[in-house]
Amino acid sequence: MKLFDEMIILILEQLNQLAAAEQARLEPSAEAWTDVGEHHMILARETAYELGGNNMPGLSGCLCTARPLLLPEGIYLYGEDLTQITANRPYARLVLAELGVSDDEALYRKFREIDYVRYHIHPEGYMARISPVSQREPVRVGKKALEKHISFRDVGQMYMERYHNISGIKNVNVIFITHTNFDYRVLEQTLGRSEQMILSLNHIFTGLSMDCETCSLKAVCDEVEELRALHFGQKNNVH
Q: What backbone torsions phi and psi does residue 98 show, to the nearest 5 degrees?
């Protein structure tokens, strides 16, 4: 499945305009940040600032490929770290994963497993408000967490630990973007395109709709040849 390969390249080209990958890569920390184990509320009076709040871009996305990733495995930060930020600003968190599977349905199932990790990461003092139907993921950062010097390295390591427990992952990049000069609108368009493809894959591999003429995602499949091939392959298997 090569559906997301072009999008991954577009995203990396955008990031290269901000900084070289070796400059953005964060070294791992020997100390682990506390994971509170469940979703926790950070009230407004406890909040230092919001990432992606007040109608600012607050994006998230997960893109998978069977091809080698262009970045070495690791955590990447483009922009200021949590303790350097003092006010609300745009934000994005991305996951790029290279999978050691070639079967289309197996790759899709593995993608779902990777994407679900975001619902099980709960750093102390860092409250992500995830929208399951869009790419939005605004974050509240607590004042006490900043006093303890929370960083994106701490948050990223929680993701990496979870990903290392998933079989089939050959390489994974966890990318945070807080740069004020980044064009979040372009990224939002790219992620919106990926979300449409994911919805089409959901239909294909769960059998939600096999009637192309009535499916709301027909235009997406018509435009993307690989989706059409997958869809018709599934229909042939059904019959």
A: -100, 125
